[in-house]
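User: Please predict structures.

Assistant: First:
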Amino acid sequence: MQTLDPAAAYERAVGLATQGQRAILGITGAPAAGKSTYAEQLTAKLVADGHKVALVPMDGYHLAQSVLEELGLAEVKGAPHTFDGAGFVAMLTRLKQSPDEQLWAPRFDRGIEDSIAASIGVAPEVTLVVTEGNYLLLDEMPWATIRTLLDQCWYVEVPEQLRHDRLEARHRAFGRSPEEAHARTYGTDERNARRIAATAHSADAIVQLP
């Protein structure tokens, strides 16, 4: 498997955006590996350079917080079964197979910890859709279908201690005590991280972020 630095990854993304038909690029990695920020920065640079690119993150398909609480799943939010995976697959299928349609995808708002429906527009002229999320390479249904819809999928990596530090800081920022943040980081989040790391071999490339 090839390892790419950000510059080489950017050139590969340009190739996808200019191949003549709509492509979908997946970016995955463990929690707090930086995939969301990287996907946002990559998309912004491509758009600034004149390419027609849209970012459709998997996080928009979180089950609503009220639903998670009703089902007793709030404490494991972020695990595969706390997403509408089939809905996400359906959207990627439409993005791939119906490029002439104006499509609208949901966006996850961290300020309210919930999704907002139909808030990301993907116009027919978009030639590259970037999607990012934890489970793009997960080998179980409905997630396994995603790999067949992606032209490429990259797995992003950062040093583990940095990733853990980011996770703890994120949990504290959203109101958890230092003890709760540590427990979540090395509990539910770590189990998810190991599950995601086991899918890395299916990626087209590893992108090592600073």
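Second:
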Amino acid sequence: MHSRRPYRTAAAGVCAVLGLGLIGGAATGSWLISDSTADPAARSPYAVGRDAWHSIPVDTLFRRTLKGDGAGPGGADRVWTRLAVAPDSGCATALDPLLAKTLRTVGCAHVLRATYTDATASSVTTVGLVFTEADTDAMRALSTRFADDHLDRRTDLLPRTYPVKDTPAVAFGNRQRASWSVHVLTEVPVVVFSVSGFADGRVTASPQPAGQAMASGATTAVAQAGLGHEAKGVADRVERALRTTVADLTEKPE
């Protein structure tokens, strides 16, 4: 019986060392977590928003179904279904050269895009999020420039479409762009854009900004088809999802 005591003593010593190690590791881990969450800059909307393209699930940024209560012409309800999400890409791939050049002041880092169709599959809309490297001042300056120079109305700054094979958006190319929206956010380093068109692939000779196409009394084919409402409605809901998610992630723990 006495011969087993050294082994028991040794085993007890090992357990004690392991226990202290685990406690020490847990304490160190809690310190690291505490330090990270205590850093205001690490939890700022700009820090969270800048990393959102890879830290937030794509189904959160681009929901499979978007509900647009009252978002259609005359306050009609709309429902949009996601057809596909484009692979992560840079500005050169996702944006026309002049639009990419215009956004150069904020340092485009990544672009995420998705294409939706309405419930009747008569229209298609590509919506995108441009994640920038800019700070608050740079984003505000870009927002001011867009407003003062009416850059969101220029047809040479139209966003590109994302056509999807074997869907109503298969023929959704540059010549099918009918209405669009570009919105520079200032509380997060993101530019939200959208572009809509007819699902039958018809060419639109005179694209119209969403704001003009939604104006009361607008009589163009684009306006009459509600394509301005499509572009604005889809963009607004994707933007809202981004804002809500970033706000949730930056809330301080109680």
